[in-house]
Design a protein that fits this description.
The chain is an all-alpha fold. It folds into 2 domains: 184 residues, no CATH class; 80 residues, N-utilizing Substance Protein B Homolog, Chain A. 68% of the residues lie in helices and 0% in strands. It contains 15 helices and no strands. The two termini are 30 Å apart.
């Protein structure tokens, strides 16, 4: 499932675009938010598909080598350990996976050079050599190799990052989050079970959460802005970065409107997001302002937390 952190980031990105464009269509922008999240889920499937396409390319290369008039012993009797990888085979045979790709019309069909490049990198990779020569042949070894391939070979690949940036603006900051999603899928996979594909949302609460977070932040933007101004007396408010303001408005919205989320979690999440999406010193400024705002909102009983362990949260 897509993490709450990424859902917050998606809402932030769409809110920023909404403010910058001065759009007056809340419904249209909400649809764009959901489309952005769906694109992230597409990427989850595309990263898994990369494994399949690399393996298919390896099969082609093996078949070409075998068909030579005078193949070497290695070409005539190749090591098929990678071609027989249990993880990739089950991804290939996954009905849900295939149906999703077909329904969404997504593939790497126009990125043959990317597949070739990743394949060549794999052949030169020490971990691949160790895997191919490992006398232990097991589901665990196959899964461990694929997990390392995702983390060490695929996700850091600059060519892949470039391709993703060119294909969709919605994927600019998704790779790390979606990579974690893929690794979580692999970690949950048991030997005699089908692939445990993660859903887009962990539950209906997450779907409602991101929509409500966006909607409440927009509808109460002026009210939250006044709070920010009140505690920014030592700053020239007009010179504050729009991104900082939106991050703080989202944090206030979450603290007020989502009683099951601890205020400390909300504060920490938006401070971390600000480190990536705003200026170098923004996190300190945002932390200081939100601390004061949250204290006031608690005093006014506008922040009320419910649920086990949250009542009376300080």
């Amino acid at each position: 499932m897509i993490s709450r952190r990424l859902l917050r980031v998606k809402a932030l990105q769409i809110l920023y675009a909404y403010r910058a464009s001065e759009s007056d269509s809340l419904q249209k922008t909400e649809k764009e938010l959901m489309f952005s999240i769906e694109k992230s889920y597409d990427l989850y499937h595309l990263i898994l598909l990369l494994l399949v396409d690399i393996m298919n390319y390896a099969v082609q290369r093996t078949d070409i080598a075998r068909s030579k008039y005078f193949p070497t012993d290695e070409e005539a009797n190749p090591n098929t350990r990678f071609l027989d990888n249990r993880i990739i085979a089950r991804i290939c045979n996954g009905r849900r996976f295939s149906q999703y790709l077909e329904t969404r019309k997504i593939s790497w069909s126009n990125e043959e050079e990317l597949i070739k490049s990743l394949y060549r990198n794999m052949l030169e990779w020490d971990v691949y050599q160790d895997y191919m020569n490992n006398p232990v042949d097991s589901f665990h070894e196959d899964k461990n190799f694929i997990s390392r391939m995702i983390v060490e070979l695929i996700l850091p690949n600059e060519y892949l990052q470039q391709v993703l940036e060119e294909q969709s603006i919605y994927w600019n900051d998704d790779l790390e989050f979606i990579g974690s999603m893929v690794i979580k899928t692999l970690s949950r996979w048991k030997e005699n079970a089908e692939m445990p594909f993660l859903s887009m949302f962990s539950n209906d609460d997450d779907r409602l959460y991101v929509v409500e977070l966006f909607r409440k932040t927009v509808l109460h933007a002026d009210e939250y802005e006044e709070l920010i101004k009140k505690f920014s007396e030592n700053w020239d408010y007009e010179r504050l970065a729009m991104m900082d303001i939106i991050i703080m408005q989202m944090a206030i919205s979450e603290a007020i409107n989502f009683p099951s989320i601890p205020a400390k979690v909300t504060l920490n999440e938006y401070i971390e997001i600000s480190k990536f999406y705003s200026t170098e010193k923004s996190s300190y400024f945002i932390n200081g302002i939100l601390d004061k705002i949250f204290a006031l909102l608690r005093a006014d009983e506008k922040i009320k937390k419910t649920g086990r362990g949250l009542i009376g949260e300080v």
